[in-house]
Amino acid sequence: MMTKTKETAKKAMDRPMRVVGKKYASVSALVRDTAEAEVANEFDKYQADRRLINCLTVIRCANEVTQVELAKRMDCAQSKVSKMESSTDADLNFGDIISYARALKQSVSITFAPARKNGADRIRFLIECIKHELDKLAKIAGDDKTIGDAVEAYAIETVQNMVKLIEESLDRLPHRMQQSNAPVFIEVECDRGQRLPLNGPKRVHKSAKKTAPVA
Fold first, then answer.
1. Residues 58 and 138 grouped into a single domain
2. In a domain, 111, yes or no
3. Is the confidence at residue 213, as pLDDT, over 50?
4. What DSSP line would sit under 23-47, residue for residue?
5. What is the mean pLDDT of residues 95-109?
6. Is there a domain that residue 114 lies in?
7. From the CB of residue 11, how many other CB atoms can be counted at a distance below 10 Å?
8. Deepest in the core among 19, 99, 202, 209, taking most CB within 10 A?
9. CA dihedral 121, 122, 128, 134 (to 10 degrees)
10. Does one domain contain both 35 and 79?
């Protein structure tokens, strides 16, 4: 039996839409512009309730895997895959999610975090994840200088890319948009004494010393 949200969302998808000659960034934007407010709100809720399965469906399509082929890999009927992809996230069986993902050669990770965790907290968590992965690479390198040099070069490249991405995000701040576009030059002084350039795309000269890793 369909829930009210599903019924309303289905009406939003089934009802004739007036042609307005406009381009939309998303289906949600189109529905909001062409349907009643109540229908649009229910459609948005329906889409929000399907974030996980929508993500899996996108991965399947991106890999050009049909429902029939995926069903063979999952050792189930095609109708089960179809039912999963038309369900909400809350209706999915966790085992089926794992099976679906693995059939597409995807790993599955689950993260538990405080409900009130904000954007800054999530960034700190991701930074710790990066450190954890680099620590694993350093452990693999051991006393092998060749591997160690490769890990160090990769770490430097990672920081360079992070600097660029952070600068791109900060460029969206209004007060920075009004400043000059002089390039930034960042250096890190390593334990060995050499100075490593971490060039970013922006404005001021900065210099930082590498600090000891936090235990």
1. no
2. no
3. no
4. --SSHHHHHHHHS-HHHHHHHHHHH
5. 93
6. no
7. 14
8. 202
9. -160
10. no
The string over 192-202, giving b where at least 16 C-beta atoms fall within 10 Å of a residue's C-beta and e elsewhere, is: eeeebebebeb
- How does DSSP assign 69-129, residue by residue? HHHHHHTS-HHHHHHHHTS-GGGS-HHHHHHHHHHTT---------TT--HHHHHHHHHHH
Q: What pLDDT sits at residue 138?
A: 93
Q: What angle do CA 142, 106, 49 make, to 5 degrees?
A: 130
Domain membership of residue 214 (yes or no) is no
- For residues 40-72, one letter each, b for 16 or more C-beta atoms within 10 angstroms of the residue's C-beta and e for the rest, the string is bbbbbebbebbeebeebbeebeeeebebeebbe
DSSP annotation of 143 reads T
Kindly state whether residues 124 and 189 are assigned to the same domain: yes
Residue among 28, 58, 60 nearest 44 (CA): 28
Residue range of the domain that includes 95:
51-103
Residue 39: closest CA among 61, 13, 62, 58? 13
DSSP string over 94-107: HHHHHHHHHHTT--
Classify residue 135: in a domain, yes or no: yes
Tell me, what amino acid is at 88? Answer: T
Measured over all CA atoms, what is the biggest interatomic distance in the chain, rounded to whole angstroms? 69
Round the average pLDDT of the chain to a whole number and report it: 78
Residue 37 above 60 pLDDT? Answer: yes
Question: Which sign does the torsion angle of CA 48, 53, 59, 65 carry?
Answer: negative
Q: What is the pLDDT of residue 109?
A: 85
Q: Are 56 and 97 in contact (CB under 8 A)?
A: yes
Of 114, 145, 113, 144, the C-alpha closest to 129 is 113
